Amino acid sequence: MWLMITADELTSYIRSAMPDADVTVVDRTGTLDHFTVAVVSDAFKGVNPLDRHRMVYKALEAPRSDGRIHALELKTETRS
Amino acid sequence: MAMQDFPLAMGAAPAAGSGQAVSADEIIAEIKREIGEHKILVYGKGTKDQPMCGFTIETKQFFEQLGYPFEILNVLDNPAKRQVLTQMTDWPTLPKVFINGEFYGDTDILGPMQEKGELTALLAEAFK
Q: Complex ipTM, two decimals?
């Protein structure tokens, strides 16, 4: 069974938790299950890096736990 | 420059493990002992000599270029311990890095810390 998720679907999971988020998705392997994701959101202001990542992991809990996202490199930033 | 890997057993009951009846309290005690024994400790997939996941390899290379001693402990075949680690840290992925007993996530967190010079200061303090 080959599970995958599109960049648009992944982005909408993140925006459901952080509506203002700019999300950049790079498919690392061409198989739509290993991604580099950069999230820029004002929701990260005053939040330490560990908790920023936790916020994104929680937003992506459904596609992570069912295997659609197998691997993720994550970058979290605020707008400058 | 970091990636993560999501344990397939995440959220699953530890019953699918090796059948050993080890309580969560015993596992927590084991983890506390381990993070006390190594100033830099990585819980990953595979060992230092034989890493079995691209992200564990990347973490190994990250610490090798920093030049301080570190250890990698394999939790690939220990779903109960993986689950306890995930609950302790509120962090769903492997590898998981502890420095001086504190949780620092993975190289997604440590890479930017290194670029800002924060990691160098942290390690100098830990190993002084």
A: 0.88
